[in-house]
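A quick aside before the break. I want you to see a complete sequence-to-structure record at least once, exactly as it would be stored in a machine-readable document. Don't worry about memorizing anything.
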Amino acid sequence: MRLVFMGTPTFAVPVLAGLTDLDGSEVVAVYTPPDRPAGRGRKAQSSPVKDFAVEHGLEIKQPANFRSAEVQAELAALQPDAIIIAAYGKLLPKPVLYVAPLGCLNIHPSLLPRHRGPSPVATTILNGDQVTGVTIMLLDEGMDTGPLIAQHEFFLKGSETTDELTTALFKLGGKLLEESLPQWQSGELLSEPQDESLVSVTRKLERADGLADWTLTADELERRARAFTPWPGLYTTWEGSGLKLVSVAYVASDSAGFEPGTVVGTDHPDLPAAVATSKGFLGLKVVQLEGKRAVDLKDFLNGSPDFIGAQLSGPAHT
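That is the input. The structure line, written in tokens, reads:
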């Protein structure tokens, strides 16, 4: 089976690695976005998927998009039996979707049709879902609307960050793909349409989503901190500077006597300070002041003892 792989970030690499070792299959090309300038020197930086492909001698293609007939013809000339997509991040036009006899198979980190769209993992954590999973689906012209080929559930512990959960789901998705591909090729595995009555759609995250709203509950804010790791993070402002709340914990104590956003000292050995919310306290473990490195809260308080008793700001409410 001739495979073309399309992917970009680190968590897509295990998927590609599994395909290179899959019996009866050959990865004939790897598509990944063009190198982008990064860092202070604006030096061109390749994607993790490209780095893996270079290391393993795989053919690499880096078109800016698939709109041109030339790029589409180059893909068709590879004569792929299937195209595998894992967090590629580029729109595939109709001619590309149907160039391979077995179609474009996409790994989506949710149990479709739940959590279609750009932020399925963060939304899973924000919602407090106890069960999520991974889906192998056929791409069509809609946004995550194509037929389902295979799914596998994943039960959450309740402590995962988006970064950790995404990595776990794509690792699971890679294994599911390896199991499903031979059956899909032989016709043993059939696709089925999504149940439109169960659809939910996620939205793209913005930096403003990370601004802590102290009128929410501590439980909600703790989930936001995990959902917004690594980006945009959960942050607030203190004395005119941004303060990122790198590591936090939910504290169920009664906060009724405190104004939301008030920093209070605690007797907890690992949470020397907490912030009052509309219900409960958000314990602080590690914080990062704008322009500084992240530090344990104990060290932060040694240099800024007046942080206790401070009133932290949140988004303006109208």
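Two observations worth writing down. The chain has two domains: 2-198, 207-307. The chain has a mean pLDDT of 96. We'll return to this after the break.
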